[in-house]
Amino acid sequence: MSLLETRGVNTYYGDSHVLFDVDFNVERNEVVALLGRNGAGKTTMLHSIMGVLHPRAGTITFEGEPIHGLDPQEIAQRSVQLVPEERRIFSGLSVEENLRLAALTAPKPLQLGWIYEVFPRLNERRRSRGGNLSGGEQQMLALARALIRDPKLLMLDEPFEGLAPVIVRDLSGVIRELVRTERTIVIVEQNVRAALQFAHRVYVLNNGHVVFQGTPQQLMQDAELTAAYLGAAV
Amino acid sequence: MPSLGLFLSQLFNGLALGALLALVASGLTIIFGTLGFVNFAHGALFAFGAYAGFLTYQASGSFILALVAGAVATGVLGLLLEWGLIRRYYDRPPEDQILVTFGIGIVIVESLRAIFGGLTRDVSQPSWGNGILNLHYFFYPTYRLEVLGIAALALFALYLLIYWTRIGLIVRAGIEDPLMVRMLGIRVPRILTLVFGIGALAAGFAGVVDSPIISVAPDMGSRVLVESFVVVVIGGLGSFPGAIIGGLISGEILSLTSMIDPAYSDVALYGVMALVLFLLPRGLLGTEGRI
Amino acid sequence: MNSSAGRRALTPERIMAIVLLALPWLAPLLHVTADVLTRSLIWGLFGLGFDILFGFTGLLSFGQAAFYGAGGFISAWLLTSHTVNSVALALLIGTAVAAVYGLIVGFISLRRVGIYFAMITLAFGEMSFFLENSPLSALTGGENGLPGVPSPSIDLFGHVYTVGSGWQMYAFMAVIFFLGYVIARRIIRSPYGMVLRAIRSNPRRTPAVGHDVQRYKLSAFVLAAIYAGLAGGLLGLFQGYMPPDAFSLDTSGQLVLSTVIGGRGTLIGPLIGAFTWIDLRDTLQQFPALGASWKLVFGAIFVLIVTLFRRGIAGEIGALLERRRRAREPLAPSATADQRPSAPAPAPAPQRVRAAAQGPAILEVRNVAKRYGAFTAVADISLEVREGELLAIIGPNGAGKSTLLNVLAGDLEASAGRIAFQGSDITREEVIDVCHRGISKTYQINQLFPDFSVCENVEIAVLAHERGRFRADCFRNLSADPSRRAKAETILEKLGLLPFADHPTAEMSYGEKRRLEIAIALANDPKLLFMDEPLAGMSPVERAEAVQLIAALAAERTVVLVEHDMDAVFRLADRIVVMQNGVLLAEGTPEQIQNDADVQQAYLGGVDEHEPA
Prior knowledge:
The structure holds three protein chains of three kinds. Chain A is α/β, with parallel strands linked by helices. Helix content of chain A is 36%, strand content 26%. Chain A has helices at residues 42-50, 72-77, 95-103, 112-118, 120-124, 135-147, 165-180, 192-196, 216-221, 223-230; strands at residues 4-13, 16-26, 31-35, 57-62, 65-66, 80-83, 153-157, 184-189, 201-206, 209-214. Chain A starts with a strand and ends with a helix. Chain B has a domain at 24-220. Helix content of chain B is 74%, strand content 2%. Chain B has a two-stranded antiparallel ribbon with strand order 1-2. In chain B, β1 and β2 form a beta hairpin. Chain C has three domains: 16-248 and 264-271, no CATH class; 354-438 and 528-606, 3-Layer(aba) Sandwich (Rossmann fold), CATH 3.40.50; 444-525, Rossmann fold, CATH 3.40.50.300. The longest helix of chain C is centred in the middle third of the chain and has 27 residues, at 213-239. Chain C is α/β, with parallel strands linked by helices. Chain A binds chain C through residues 12-18, 20, 37-40, 85, 158, 160-162, 165, 168-169, 172, 189-197, 207, 216, 226, 228, 230-234, and chain C through 394, 396-398, 445-446, 509-510, 513, 533, 536-540, 543, 563-566, 570, 578, 581, 593-596, 599-600, 603-609, 611, 613.
């Protein structure tokens, strides 16, 4: 049984049909990359899983239980966490308050000390207001906040967006460590090379349809597909 | 030219009045920041608290008990109102939210009138509030100084609640980004109910504290309602520090202008509000993104 | 509001006239006195203006008592001090003062919207109350009010008729109310009234199609103040006395309650609501035990109505009648979304003619930036849009494409730089003026007018094109100008929407709504059309149709669009501009862009290639 499985998911944003019959699954301990140009529906997919949007048709099951139609807090309590694209850290709260808030309703949260070991920069800035952090630090905080809940499924929406190369390197290091410790991760990215570093399997979305499913090697070999759906070339 | 004594006396009045306004406005502003609408029933809750306190005071003779009872009773009323009615309005346009709280306010006030009658009831000061203090330059009623102290304590308690407790943490985060709070597994509807209850509690408590000074009548809250609106406009909707600063400024404006001509003090207050709106549309410390 | 034409049609005006005439005979049956009816009429008049402001324009004011009291006290004072002896003149002056007061208060209050607006008007109402009570009490009588207001007398060709109490007063008020009602009806059914309703329906799109929303709002506010001032003056005449509570919050609040209970947006709502509480009060006061509780009952009814019967008494009845009428005369047979005619295929999708690349620059953008505090969305963009071309702006997420589009279209103000349209500097112009220059934008998320029919959506935009930023044509009838509808229908036909012209917008499918979105933007004959992700959320079939449609539109004007659908972009665009992180990355023809290494890099990622997998 897959950890997460979606069958025939059709999600609308208001009247706008964004996802068309999407079949998608994630096994335990694997890293799945969800790629595609922006507007393809990747974020909508994550939102559908997280309960922010409810699919109009289709099913989403997690650990065998249907979760489509549930509210985000119920899905979070089932140990699914989303690190949103805009990060959405609480700028009026300190770093430590952001983390403590996240740990509040987690059944077995990770230790704050361990989090600070993995993210030493956050330790230095633990009393700083979230709004005063740099972009890279905010991304770290958003990830740390999701991690402290020790989620069974961790979803990252464009974690590398808008970050300087040196921060991308640091962040890649953290994610690599998470992969090494066999966390189950879904990573959505436009930065194809960054995502393919970690992925065991890849899905490609275009205009709300799944147009490819396979391994990173298979994807890179298919130059035509890469160009058509990921790049701007023909 | 007013004497120093009169000036200081009015200054203290302004602080006492300002602290009370700040307390009432704090309730209003955290309700707005978290729930997203302005509570037009806030004045009615102030009156409700005063009556609850009045009854308790009559029955027990203890003003302290009256303070507690008034606050708690109003808080519970707030919880019930949010849970029973107001939460159905979160998806409705802001005008509808105003209308329903306005209607609730009328029902509360008229119920008080139906139960207690329309006559003003005097509330005697607590025994520890009697007397006049000699403050060197002027004499000042003891109770008024105590009002300042009590209100300041209450504000401090609110501050502790908001910045030092888990509930406060959730509320502060919820003001900023309620969806993200839900994505962290926190049940937001319960928090909203609690916030409305806390806001109501603050208003009710202020009602009891103020009752020895302004006496108890069903419509005692309507003036407070409008004044607290002015406070939050000046201080900025959704900001707790803004409510405090706005409250103190408003209190002083009302007090000090009454030295010049009492007839104009309310007009002066509204004038300052209009000025703030012209120059600083978000008020002094208003939060982004809520309006 | 399609009433069937016909000399014997029962228009609301005729029904009102009949009811007003019949009431004196019906009153005994209903156990109401002339006084109750007269008082209701005064409130009804007060409410006509308020309903225009709140029910139709969507502005909830809690301070209308300020104008009611102002008009009332000025009139009363003029008469009691014998400064003016003609009742008509006193009323006129009182109303005029109320109007000026309304202008001042409105100007300050309308700087804000929604909740803030309600709070500010509340405060002004209270301020007026305090002014009346204390500083001006010498003139107003303070807490005691102004007694001794004479009965109105009418001078007809030498004969002076004094209006006595009872049914004479009722007749007097009924005539004035009827006139006020007829005028209000005309205002609502005028082009001016249509714009007011558009403001309520979609306050964001209304200025974008060229209407000066602030002026419309302010004029509506003044109209409400005029009705209020006149009603206040009449109150003084009716009672022979001008009460101080005319200024009170209670009065403003009663007006809101009456209007909501009676039905907002119906014009007669306030009358019905007022009658309800006045009658309720009189009835309950006959029982000593219940005397003061009428307010409680009324308040409870109010909460009930706001929660359950949101349209109020008249509104719910009206909606019921409307449903019955639609059942009898159904519109064009409804079809499922699949069966509906799609956008008509225009001339076969033309191979993009590249001649436009030589055209003169219609839009010049120099060093434009948009910053939000410390965050820079658009850094330093310079480009040219050539007349007749289709320019596409593409780029990865967060590139600033939509922000740039919004700045160019006038929806956002640039932080720096210069934008020139056909040689004129439009950098600081607001969207209303930009629209009148012939620039339009379609939105990524539909910005329609949901309370109107499909055709009316376009007509609202046509109104701005024909009438300019603002025109106070409150007495013109909408149907007096057939060219407006004709123009709208022409546009609808181009987009395959003509069969649905009179359908409610809510019944349209997503694809049809997207086309309506475009139709609205075409109403001002734009020379330059901006399109923000026009293909967002479309199925493959809808996309193909939309591409053909956009190509046809681009054949007649200059088009700049932001899109993610690369197939569509490469089929449509003459030139492409690529943005990343707020700056221009590349610019050129589709072929050039496809082969650009920087662009490929931007889309495929910037991670150091030597990182071990």
